[in-house]
Design a protein that fits this description.
This protein is mainly alpha-helical. It has two helices and no strands. The chain has a domain of 43 residues. Helices cover 73% and strands 0% of the residues. The longest helix has 33 residues. The two termini are 31 Å apart. It comes from Rhizopus delemar (strain RA 99-880 / ATCC MYA-4621 / FGSC 9543 / NRRL 43880).
Amino acid sequence: MRNVVANKEAIQLSSEFLRLFVVEAVHRSSAELEAMSIASQTTNKKVINVEALERILPQLLLDF
């Protein structure tokens, strides 16, 4: 097995891409949770639950 070394710019770019992916997931999940809470009349908007993440994940993966 060969040792693979990534240069500094590649690591920075990868970490920025991952950061943007997570930020987008949080924003979309928050919007989905807000839509779900309006439909079900709940008011807990500070916690993003797994259900909201599961609902946005397919489209998020297609967009990235």
